[in-house]
Amino acid sequence: MSKKFLPFALPCIGEEEINEVVETLRSGWLTTGPKTKRFEEDFAQFIDIPYALAVNSCTAGLHLALEIIELKPGDKVITTPYTFTATAEVIRYLGADPLFVDIDPKTFNLDTQKLAATLNTVDGIKAILPVHFGGQACDMDTILALAQAHSLKIVEDAAHALPTYYKDRMIGHFGDLTVYSFYVTKTLATGEGGMIVTTNADYAERIRALRLHGISRDAFDRNSSEQPAWFYEVVAPGFKYNLTDIAAALGIHQLQKANSFWQRRTEIAAQYTQGLAGLPLQTPYLHPDSTHAWHLYVIQLQLEKLNLNRNTFIDQMKEAGIGTSVHFIPLHLQQYWRNRYGFKPEDFPVASYVYQRAVSLPIYPCMTDADVQRVIKTVQKLLIEARK
User: Fold this and answer.
1) pLDDT tens digits, residue range 238-282?
2) Is 186 annotated as catalytic?
3) Cβ neighbours of residue 373 closer than 8 Å, sequence gap 6 or more
4) HSE-up of 117 (CA within 13 Å, CB side)?
5) pLDDT of 281-310, one tens digit each?
6) I need a labelling partner for 381 at 20 to 30 A (CA). Which of 32, 130, 133, 332 fits?
7) All domains of the chain, ordered by start, with CATH?
8) Which of 186, 240, 305, 388 is flagged as catalytic?
9) Is 0.70 topped by the overall pTM?
């Protein structure tokens, strides 16, 4: 390769994050403590919501959210097959079953017409777990109306959705609980980490205990209160889901940059959409009710117009020094889910169709305009050469 390899994703870490982590290391307080508390307070203010509770992953947050709404064995939770396995696996943690509903062919979010039909024909549904794919909001008005009509809880998987708006309201204000991801590739990166937000004080109190072994106070609370530091009470059989101060130190400054990161991702997406126009592919559809976070920029190859398949295109991009990815391999095609529920590819035809054509291009704030143009020119070259 004549040029340096351009990765699919790269966290954009500055001196502010580095200095905050160094200060944390020197403080001697590495686990959940003052930095985590500050990060939670800042995040709650950013979303403009009363309660934000840090956890060590979005997966942990989704698990806790479903525990909080008292999901039980035999219950069903409606979600999408077009997501990472964590969205559905947390349902199985509690002995419940995911009930997949196919996706809208434009947004790749839950198809709300199919959602309504499922709710009218299936019993035992406890909740809806929508995923805001790539950073574009689901049709929350319809989902809220259906949830209310059927007395269901809503737990939002907002792993891609910071910051995402639906009709000028930020995601985080629609579901009973909303969970974000700070995995290394996400729009806010702490390496590993997540956040649960809610307006429900009882939910927040229970999450605080459950995320750390069901203990009523974490170590920082015990060391900063008037009660003896050694004293604590176990109020429930909880989990080990707390976020460290080292990760929170990164999050504090990543959050301060969230809007500027978003603006840069939006600029990159606009360059892609303009530069890829006229090629045998589809660029992402922008729903007028959603303001996109641009965690992902997913193109769909028009394979009927090309002498190559998606996998060959990805290989050729790699040979040209550019990383790409695929979001996602639908869950009904994955071994565990396929075997447990007897799924076939045609059970969710839109998800299967999109998967065969989908390629995620690099999109992260520290990409230069030259990087973006390099991606565009490489895609142009490969697809023009492969055009039938």
Assistant:
1) 999 999 999 999 999 999 999 999 999 999 999 999 999 999 999
2) yes
3) 271, 275
4) 8
5) 999 999 999 999 999 999 999 999 999 999
6) 133
7) 15-256 (3.40.640.10), 258-386 (3.90.1150.10)
8) 186
9) yes
